[in-house]
Amino acid sequence: xxxxxxxxxxxxxxxxxxxxxxxxxxxxxxxxxxxxxxxxxxxxxxxxxxxxxxxxxxxxxxxxxxxxxxxxxxxxxxxxxxxxxxxxxxxxxxxxxxxxxxxxxxxxxxxxxxxxxxxxxxxxxxxxxxxxxxxxxxxxxxxxxxxxxxxxxxxxxxxxxxxxxxxxxxxxxxxxxxxxxxxxxxxxxxxxxxxxxxxxxxxxxxxxxxxxxxxxxxxxxxxxxxxxxxxxxxxxxxxxxxxxxxxxxxxxxxxx
Length: 256
Hints:
This protein is mostly helical. It has 11 helices and 5 strands; from the N terminus they run H-H-E-H-H-E-E-H-H-H-E-H-H-E-H-H. It is extended and about 95 Å long.
């Protein structure tokens, strides 16, 4: 309820989450951007805090004319749906009157800075005379030492290198699953359930309040452990049935 415009990035079509949604819905990225704009514009006009009661995934799919769109937004971390309705995470950052006021103020400051021309100062006559005098003196010294040959270049001291340690931080509140992460999980942890394991990962570290230097690497380690555990799971006999090709029991009989 804050006007007839909303904030959107100019390169939104290149966002990994948009690419993942396009792959899921079997459409191009620009069509996804159009559907997002359509839905976000509606939310900006209907909500003050990003929560809209009574709205369902089915209604969202019908509103943008694409089945599965709401689920794709949830997978990207851009939509939360529960029994009370829908919620747009971080709505206040990009929508609503305060966010738009901040955007307009920032644009005014940018234009103001761009319009200011830095002062140009002319070199004083005394400085020019001093420069000329020093140049003439250098030439005279070169002649005394064998002509106008240029003096040898000064030795360049090596710049000391320092290794910066990446600072550890808490798990970000916004931890979306990107297209690159989906591709990686399909290749390296195909037996792990992506959504379930990610939810367990977030719950675990948020409950413990631990800090890490690289949360993406921590997530990958979690998925690899889930892949390893999935390979060791024992299927109950009542569900899978006996393996009649398994002859390991003959080892106690001396084999065939």
